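Subject: design request, 348 residues
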């Protein structure tokens, strides 16, 4: 790994530019080279996995929107009408829409899917249970969701993807995310936010439900146990995908607060996951930054976004790709017959 870093730094320093002048783009290139084990790295195929599932805690009235919105938004994405469709289409990402546990009947087999989208039927259950009243998942369901996530990591490799993004879709998923993180040791006041825009009274109610859920479930500070007692099918599947990328040479860009909570569960299971993770953006949700900080991840952009769906992740991932393109396409000093390549100027 150290050898790859040295080679990548030397490659960047030989390009026709002052040393270090591409700033963080150079850091992203170095990390990509370490992930892929090649100098320079490449980004030729990208896919954003958007995980949809329903959360039992929604029945406690912690969101402005009813649960049927989850299903409706899955159909909206598959028909090309969501924010992620616009942003992924504009930056060259394929969308892989994953049903991890949406409430209701299975989606019909003849479902119309727009070009640029793939639909993956991976549901573990018909929405998870209400963690305010009982464990969200059974141990068997947790293992199944983690395993299905690892199947999707292999799917990414089979598709020949160099970089993936992860997005989320599910009513009340910020409540599930906050509960998991509080159980993991984060301060509840730093984790509970307005989500879809609830008022002060509803925010206090949400805080109470989350606090009591964590207390009642009494989970050990263990990523798998927290996913089982307070998590959801989609969060466990996201964690499994992240864990399953180990050794596959595929970088992963995570989106906002819900995805980052799932990534943190993966981090608790295997702290090495930070080596192949990038934080696509800094969400406007207040709890996002402390969790990224704990994993040592620096967000690529800060656009005050809080949409989810992988929208912030594809923007951040596009910036990584631009850095990689610069590293691959810029001429070296010798190739361009430009003087100054031997000058040992100071980086700043």
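Subject: RE: design request

Done. Sequence follows.
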């Amino acid at each position: 790994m150290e050898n790859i870093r040295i080679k990548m730094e030397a490659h960047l320093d030989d390009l026709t530019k002052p040393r270090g002048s591409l700033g963080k783009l150079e850091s992203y290139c170095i990390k990509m080279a370490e992930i892929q084990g090649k100098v320079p790295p490449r980004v030729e195929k990208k896919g954003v996995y958007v995980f949809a599932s329903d959360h039992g805690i929604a029945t406690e009235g912690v969101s402005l929107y009813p649960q049927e919105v989850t299903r409706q938004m899955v159909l909206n994405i598959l028909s090309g009408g969501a924010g992620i469709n616009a942003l992924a289409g504009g930056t060259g990402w394929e969308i892989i829409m994953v049903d991890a546990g949406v409430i209701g009947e299975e989606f019909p087999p003849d479902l119309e899917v727009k070009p640029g989208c793939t639909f993956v039927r991976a549901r573990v259950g018909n929405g998870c249970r209400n963690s305010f009243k009982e464990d969200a998942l059974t141990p068997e369901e947790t293992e199944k969701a983690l395993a299905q996530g690892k199947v999707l990591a292999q799917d990414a490799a089979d598709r020949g993807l160099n970089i993936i993004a992860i997005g989320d879709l599910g009513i009340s998923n910020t409540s599930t995310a906050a509960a998991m993180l509080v159980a993991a040791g984060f301060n509840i006041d730093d984790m509970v936010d307005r989500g879809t825009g609830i008022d002060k009274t509803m925010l206090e109610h949400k805080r109470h439900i989350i606090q009591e859920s964590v207390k009642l479930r009494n989970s050990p500070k263990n990523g798998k146990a927290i996913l089982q007692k307070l998590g959801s099918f989609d969060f466990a599947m996201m964690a499994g995908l992240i864990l399953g990328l180990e050794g596959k040479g595929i970088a992963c860009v995570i989106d906002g607060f819900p995805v980052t909570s799932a990534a943190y569960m993966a981090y608790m299971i295997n702290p090495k996951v930070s080596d192949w993770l990038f934080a696509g953006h800094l969400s406007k949700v207040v709890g996002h930054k402390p969790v990224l900080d704990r994993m040592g991840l620096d967000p690529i952009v800060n656009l005050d976004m809080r949409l989810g769906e992988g929208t912030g992740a594809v923007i951040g991932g596009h910036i990584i790709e631009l850095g990689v393109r610069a590293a691959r396409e810029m001429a070296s000093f010798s190739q361009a017959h430009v003087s100054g390549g031997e000058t040992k100027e100071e980086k700043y």
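The chain has one domain: 46-322.
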